[in-house]
């Protein structure tokens, strides 16, 4: 049974010392109850508190970190569906490197991956991890590859090295880097010891629920709690079911052995199949997906999907408030105005583009609200829009004095004209889909 | 320790909807297509019935789309202006399970073709392929109503899927569907309550529930996908939970929506970080289709042959699992 905030408070020292970085014990208790904190953050917790809270105070899916300079945080999820609240930690995307490739090839690959950054809706998107597979006969190249990665990148590392001696050398060399160790075979005492001594997390692989639960229990009892689960399956449907069942067991049944982030090495017949599978598992509960090859178009597609799925449904994505050129506008091209709710922006800009004309699109700051909501909240009204247009000095950028507002807020046109002397305010269509016919029927230049 | 799979059983069941009619049923199709019938979330074979797999339709046009991407034109340049031939190519070469005929050219500002022309075209497509047909209209209600009435009449008994009716014009479209025995698409703008309301309006006028497919409106990848995704998950959860007015199979448009976005059209030279343009067009459609399959989509209208191929392959792979159990 989960404990209430008050139940937990009774077990805390009640000194309000703030050592847990929460000002009061009561506030800390509330955070524990919401599974947003862990008891270990309180250095003064009694043995009794630890025992009682033990299981109950842990988040249902453990937060695991990989990497040091730019650690990837995964797990700590609380819902099955994003609309119930949100997904907190987006899927980490890892790219595989094989030590059998020659050094020059590896280096160019590392640089290519490291330098691949792309912006979308104000966010810089990039891959998160290197998955280093030691498939060479030569021992030395494993260390060599690690060196290359470390010298050229700050991304976290997952080590896939069947030779435990070589692995140990790699881990020694990577000390303080907080790497993860990928295990293809059943976890051994030696693996657990390596993970413990090197502050590494373990990716456990199994082929059945029972086997995976047993391995996770074993690792935890031996003191390694930073685990990542890989219930390998060749069938996409089975994998989706496995992921769903494990996430559901952790969240709804408090089944601790599956209370960890999930992992999949993407396999498929070709690049299209890789993408289909990666898309499916990104939506359905994988915290790490490993891609065998670097492909910008695929990564850009997956970054976009990840941004969509992991955005907080209660906080709309906003675009930067400013003037956006649509097509190749001249100073005479008309000016459209809308809000900075990303969906509104995308639809309006897309429809203006599809209409075939060029225009200036003024995106006002409405804190991410859509047209009608922003209008009702007083954020998309004549005075506000006029102030924004003056602030960005639009009159110096364009010669046109025609401003098109969304049809749904026709009532603001008078007010806007009053606040923007010299401009003609034209009431546009209500639906973006009608922009193409609107621009055909109204003289805008 | 023995792990026990936590199963969730549902009170509701998604309504089974059949599209098309064979000679026996008063049409001319070689087979019909049925979707729906599920009693658990998508692909959860371990806790429910899934009698039908999601199906893929491909689309042909009465007018070459103004901004049709080059990556698609490469496949269709020889047939893009011959809808009956293009339909045949989609079925024979690309594995389309249904054909959607998009009648954009009847829009008063996009060609203003007559209702008669539209009906004639649909009849040609019906002759050229034997799979069930979807008739897709546009947002100019006055004209679309006129066209749909004519097309419904001309294809009486074929049980076409008439795509689409909205709150503003559902009465006309629904009446035509009832009169000539067709199935309807109820479209609402990414909103659970509006979707439910339209279904109530339709069933209140005695429109048969087993002839309704819901279009929650597709926001494609990067352009509102997250809204469509979550609305579909909510509709499916509510439908399975026992809300009969949300227990309809759902249709999505990954092809049309993905073909219109910048990502499918701009070159690698202009956007080097977006990668290969040829791949990107297909990728955009695949990712939209697959994520929405996971959210409950069952009828997907798609464009890119490579996307169709891989999405069909993955649906088969997943359903092989069910048959293998």
Q: Tell the overall outline of chain A.
A: globular
Provide a count of the helices of chain A.
17
Proportion of residues in extended strands of chain B: 5-15%
How many domains make up the 3D coordinates of chain B? 1
What's the CATH class of the largest domain in chain A, please?
Answer: Alpha Beta
Strand content of chain A: 15-25%
**CATH-scheme architecture of chain B:** Alpha-Beta Barrel
Structure description:
The complex is a heterodimer of chains A (445) and B (325). In chain A, the strands form 4 sheets. In chain A, strands 10-9-8-7-6-3-12-11 form an 8-stranded parallel beta sheet. Chain A has a 5-stranded mixed beta sheet with strand order 13-15-14-16-17, sandwiched between helices. Chain A starts with a helix and ends with a helix. Chain A folds into 3 domains: 5-57, Electron transport complex subunit B, putative Fe-S cluster (3-methyladenine DNA Glycosylase II, Chain A, domain 3), CATH 1.10.15; 64-310, TIM Barrel, CATH 3.20.20; 323-441, Rossmann fold, CATH 3.40.50. Chain A has 445 residues and is α/β, with parallel strands linked by helices. Helix content of chain A is 40%, strand content 17%. In chain B, helix 3 (115-128) packs across helix 4 (141-154), helix 4 (141-154) runs parallel beside helix 5 (170-180) and helix 7 (225-240) runs parallel beside helix 10. Chain B has a single domain, classed as TIM Barrel. The interface between A and B is large, with 67 and 63 residues.
